[in-house]
Design goal:
The chain is built from 19 helices and 14 strands. By secondary structure, it is α/β, with parallel strands linked by helices. The chain folds into four domains: 136 residues, Rossmann fold; 163 residues, Rossmann fold; 80 residues, Helicase, Ruva Protein, domain 3 (Orthogonal Bundle), CATH 1.10.8; 40 residues, Arc Repressor Mutant, subunit A, CATH 1.10.10. The chain has a five-stranded parallel beta sheet, with helices on both faces. Strands 7-8-11-6-12 form a five-stranded parallel beta sheet. α2 packs parallel to α3, α13 packs across α15 and α18 packs across α19. The N and C termini lie far apart (73 Å).
């Protein structure tokens, strides 16, 4: 703690006392300002950040407690020590409830004053160090796959934040690698259940014959191999959140069991007779189109309706290519720090290639590629030749789309539509979506440009 960098504000309507405290603390090496009333103090607090405020409790107009309440709205980090000649236990308790760090009675003992001030500033330093440590740890932790400024990803994050405080069941849809589990954990962490368990279940990994026992638990001797009582995932998640990943791979019997619990809120442990009730929020995720799974007879329609009370669809990375530069910058910084490598940047040409690549593994694949580059690239600027071979080969074979200087807008639009239908997708509904127009508009333009046979 470097005392000349410490700013303290003394507030008291007794001019002599205010000046005496100010001078005593200045002799200790602190920067000290003074104010004769609460409104003057608030003006100073609005223009400068103070480490500590020592204020009288009883002053004309605003009291010291009122000053504390208003000042803490401007700065939560400023500590308050209240001074009063009316030193009662009740007023001390009230001061502490309002957020005061400590309490002094008049007449002031300057030795005790200096000790209390030093103790408060040491406390503040420890809190600051802990906050800085927390920030450093957050930077070192795995970066989110949900970084981005595109409207698509902002809408996903906003919806997750809106529904987090509720207990509503959520179905999270998206391709592999888009960050479905991250959304589920974010919903849990921003909910009233944040301090309760978050239990992850990979439905695709549950053996069909043991689904019921895994979800609801079993009693000793319920089946061969059941050597002791074992709680199921629902019991483990009691009070918290149960995240059912790859819900589309849950076997038919498991789907029926889950539907019954969602409807009745109760179940029986395998080998048990009594009904068990738990308080669990259900979040589910899938990388398949459940409507198609229902149509194919592989997923229960009634279960789908129970799960998708609030559906969240995470867009694939290829549909938010504008987020790729920010993602790359974040991953480069993270992995350089993690692996103790020097910082790297990406050339404009390489960045453009990354934005053109379709990323079938989505953000997780991009993350892994960047980590590989940080470890293998020896120079500061990443060039196209530093990218994995599969990206370079794809870009080499990708059709070129070149606009000539003498092209009209109509000619450029015709070429773009033809390239999209020929090299990206022949599905006109999908092509219209990629081009940002309606299917009817695409049909009109196909007729207009003589491309109906495309």
């Amino acid at each position: 703690m470097h005392k000349p960098n410490i700013s303290i504000l003394v507030v008291d309507d007794e001019h002599g006392l205010c000046t005496g405290v100010q001078e005593a603390l200045r002799r200790e090496g602190y920067q000290v300002d003074a104010a004769s009333d609460a409104p003057s103090a608030l003006k100073l607090l609005g223009t400068r950040l103070y480490n500590l405020v020592l204020t009288d409790v009883r002053m004309p107009g605003l009291s010291g407690l009122q000053l504390l309440k208003q000042a803490r709205q401007q700065s939560r980090d400023t500590l308050f020590i209240l001074m009063t000649a009316f030193g009662t236990v009740e007023s001390a308790v009230e001061a502490m409830k309002e957020g005061a760090h400590d309490y002094l009675t008049k007449p002031l003992d300057m030795k005790r004053l200096r000790a209390v001030v030093l103790k408060a500033l040491e406390f503040q330093a420890v809190v600051s160090e802990n906050n800085e440590l927390r920030q450093r740890l957050q930077k070192r932790s795995e970066p989110s796959l949900l970084i981005g400024e595109s409207a698509a990803i902002r809408n996903v994050v906003r919806l997750a934040e809106d529904i987090a405080p509720s207990d509503v069941t959520v179905l999270i849809e998206g391709e592999s690698g888009t960050g479905k589990e991250l959304i589920a954990r974010s919903i849990h962490q921003h909910s009233p259940r944040a301090d309760k368990p978050f239990i992850f279940v990979n439905c695709a990994a549950l053996p069909e014959q043991l689904v019921e026992a895994e979800l609801f638990g079993h009693r000793r001797g319920a089946f061969t191999g059941a050597l002791a009582d074992k709680p199921g995932r629902f019991q483990l998640a009691d009070g918290g959140t149960l995240f059912l990943d790859e819900i589309s791979d849950l076997p038919a019997k498991g789907q029926g069991d889950l539907l019954r619990v969602l409807e009745d809120g109760a179940f029986r442990v395998v080998g048990g007779t009594e009904l068990v009730r738990v308080n669990v929020r259900i979040l589910a995720a899938t990388n398949k189109n459940l409507q198609k799974e229902v149509a194919a007879g592989r997923f229960r329609e009634d279960l789908l309706y129970r799960l998708q009370i609030v559906p969240i669809t995470i867009p694939p990375l290829r549909d938010r290519a504008e987020d790729i530069p920010l993602l790359i910058e974040t991953f480069l910084d993270h992995f350089a720090a993690k692996h103790k490598r020097r910082s790297k940047n990406m050339s404009a040409e390489t960045l453009q290639l990354c934005q053109r690549f379709p990323w079938p593994g989505n953000v997780r694949q991009l993350r892994n590629v960047i980590e590989r580059i940080v470890l293998t690239c020896r120079h500061a600027t990443i060039e196209t030749g530093d990218l994995p071979d599969f990206m370079q080969v794809h870009d080499h074979h990708a059709p070129a789309f070149t606009i000539r200087p003498d092209m009209t807008l109509a000619e450029a639009e015709k070429l773009l539509i033809r390239q999209t239908l020929t090299h990206v997708t022949s599905n006109r509904e999908e092509a219209a979506r990629l081009l940002g127009i309606s299917r009817r508009s695409l049909q009109y333009k196909l007729k207009q440009y003589g491309l109906l046979e495309s």
